[in-house]
Amino acid sequence: MSESLTLDVGADPAAAVAAAVRALSNGGVVVLPTETVYGVAALPSCRNAIEEVFRRKGRPPERLVAVLVADDNQARALVEADDRFEHLATAFWPGPLTVVGHRRSGGDDDLFLGDGATERGGATVGVRWPDHDLVRSIAAEVGPIATTSANRTGQPTPDTAAGAAAALGGDLLVLDGGPCTGEPSTVVDLTDHPARVVRRGAITESDLEQAGISVEAAEQR
């Protein structure tokens, strides 16, 4: 296993952003911190990079990934924003909420779907505006970033950059932002009525109801 190139985000955030932008733009895969867990990221238009993410994770091809965006306007360029979307964006973004909605017509066909959103088919996409300056800065430069947790499928996500890189096989650009110990984002599918919680996370069903969104709870597994 080759050694990963690790950059300390705290020591030089601008250099970390620039390195990630170069790597992603050149079809690379990057491990990066978020406010929830460490993620492994690639540009959604780069099929080879996406395939590498799946291979490193051992992720089934039917479980596709969501995208992180720089701001709510970048999100609205991807998703048809109805009233429920606007309520959720106002209440919880930036933050640990992934919203699955209908893909805006004329959008990029290479954008990938949100976790669990493929069950009924259709043109959908899962997006999240994270509460993390580094990730937002990268997305502002390269556009939406396909990102999933930096772990082998079925295993816990390491809370350190070194652990995440090792879990994925090394030989990566790794942005070390210190321990990431947050809960994963909650995933809400707005293509259903009522909305459906696909994955429980940091934002609870009660939080969603208080924001005025009727939801069907995620199934216990």
- CATH fold assignment: DHBP synthase
Count of helical regions: 7
Distance between the termini: 34 Å
**What proportion of the residues form beta strands (DSSP E)?**
15-25%
DSSP E strands, number:
11
Number of domains: 1
Strand order of the largest sheet: 1-8-2-3-7-4-6-5-9-10-11
Rg from alpha-carbon coordinates: 16 Å
What is the chain-wise order of helices and strands? EHEEHEHHEEHEHEEEHE
Tell me the structural class.
alpha/beta
Please give a handful of descriptors for the protein shown:
alpha/beta, DHBP synthase, eleven-stranded mixed β-sheet, globular
Structure summary:
The protein has helices spanning 13-25, 47-57, 72-76, 83-92, 133-142, 161-167, 205-210, and strands at 5-8, 30-32, 39-42, 66-68, 97-102, 124-128, 145-149, 173-176, 186-189, 195-199, 215-216. The protein is of the alpha/beta class.
Topology (SSEs and partners):
Blueprint: E1 5-8, H1 13-25, E2 30-32, E3 39-42, H2 47-57, E4 66-68, H3 72-76, H4 83-92, E5 97-102, E6 124-128, H5 133-142, E7 145-149, H6 161-167, E8 173-176, E9 186-189, E10 195-199, H7 205-210, E11 215-216
